[in-house]
Amino acid sequence: MGCNLAIAGVTGAVGQEFLRIIEERDFLFSSLKVLASSRSAGKKIEFKGKTYIVEELTKKSFAGIDIALFSAGAERSKEFAPAAVEAGAVVVDNSSAFRMDPSAPLVIPEINPQKIAEHKGIIANPNCSTIIGIVPVWPLHKANPVRRMIMSTYQAASGAGTSAMLELESQSREILDGKKPTMKAFPYQIAFNCFSHNSSLGPNGYNLEETKMVKETRKIFDCAEIAITCTCIRIAVMRAHCESINLEFTNSITPDEVRDLLSTAPGVTVLDDREHNRFPMPIDATGKDDIFVGRIRQDESLPENRGINIWVAGDQLRKGAALNAVQIAEKLL
User: Which of 17, 90, 162, 273 is a plausible cystine mate for 278, CB 3.0–4.6 Å?
Assistant: First the structure.
């Protein structure tokens, strides 16, 4: 017998991905409650041969629930997650609500699974860009501590939800038909375009996505002194994020050593074919669990071979969100 499971935000892009991954991985549950906003209440969801009726997410939704997977946005998480904990559930939250809360472990199972045991009812799922970027950096950091990271992201529409994915599709059709693109989900045209990540800017000129990546990486690595700087860009890709990552190490390290370390790293696939100029692309990572890594090369601007450049691609909805949360839930069981 498995756990009594609830999914909050089941009708969203990540909520739907939760269901796909739970089915694929044969996650053991004895009962399932599907929750969403009042707008979606009453909708029917077919899952594993059964019909489930979406219920409105309220503070009374969690009686008898063991694990609650949340992907309903930060405001709803702040409102309803404490009620789930009070009812006896463990919440795995995919929003930004609790990530920097000292009492909530921020977990990537390939990096810090031991933190799961420290939970006080809520476990935070990191930001998608953080997960995709640092899963392959961690085995390198363990072998040779990283002193500085420069991360540039190329982020898919899926990170802004189902409406953003549909907008990329509809704008592409509009532009190809010679029409003006309709903009609702994004502030700017996303089709055939790229722009600075659509999160709020801080007084230092960094947007919220960039700030999240810096703070979350330090917390997950348990390394407050690591120097990190980020530039986050939204691009016209459906659901896989890419990142260019420059690493400065404490000691010398070669591309071959990096390839060796990553070849056995959990959750990582090396795709580094220089002969054919073939490296990770969003279409490689889409629908896959692993983070793909390539373009592994020496940063020749740093002395003593202490610099490495890598390029990564990862499915934002899977490892960047739903898969990471389900992996945490599996470890809770």
Answer: 273
